[in-house]
Design brief:
Helix content: over 70%
Oligomer: single chain
Shape: rod-shaped
Number of domains: 2
Distance between the termini: 129 Å
Order of helices and strands: HHHHHH
Structural class: mainly alpha
Largest sheet: none
Number of helices: 6
Radius of gyration: 49 Å
Strand content: under 5%
């Protein structure tokens, strides 16, 4: 502002008094008290508003802090579950490989995409068809029908030559 506008503004704020009258000091003091009270009330309202804003921000941060804790817990649970899931996947793959290793290439090709429980059921069925899987692998003797006789060519030969192991697996030989 220029000096002229400041002077005119100052003159407008002063009460209009004629040149021979002196301004009433009491009315000026009363008016200044009124303005001071208004200013103090405005400052108090401003302080209350600022306090309310701070409290709202603190509440929001506290709420976000709880969300952060909740998020951290969920992330920890997710990490633990993903570790378990990968362990389960590794177990299934290893178990499938173990089952399929004893199968022919045709069987692997036909049944290799099945789930683990179905593969286990088929493996059990295939073992039953091959003689129950009772013969040890180091003595794999098989008959023409594909049954294993603990390394011997027939049940009779097994029962005669190795009575003890035959009885352990099959009971007494009827013949």
């Amino acid at each position: 502002m220029t000096e002229e506008s400041q002077a005119s503004t100052a003159e407008e704020q002063q009460p209009a008094v004629s040149s021979d009258e002196k301004p009433d000091v009491g009315s000026i003091i009363a008016e200044s008290k009124k303005y001071r009270q208004r200013a103090q009330a405005a400052e108090e309202r401003l302080a209350a508003i600022e306090k309310a804003q701070r409290e709202a921000e603190e509440a929001k941060l506290a709420e976000q802090g709880e969300f952060k804790e909740l998020l951290a817990k969920r992330e920890a649970e997710l990490e633990a579950l993903s570790v378990k899931a990968s362990e389960w996947d590794n177990y299934q793959a290893t178990r499938k490989d173990a089952i399929l290793s004893g199968w022919t290439d045709d069987q692997k090709e036909t049944f290799g995409d099945l789930s683990l429980d179905k593969l286990e059921a088929l493996d059990k069925q295939f073992k039953t068809e091959r003689g129950g899987g009772k013969a040890p692998q180091d003595r794999p003797g098989e008959s023409k029908a594909g049954q294993k006789f603990n390394g011997y060519s027939s049940l009779r030969e097994w029962a005669i030559k190795d009575k003890e192991s035959f009885r352990q697996r099959n009971g007494d030989y009827p013949g």
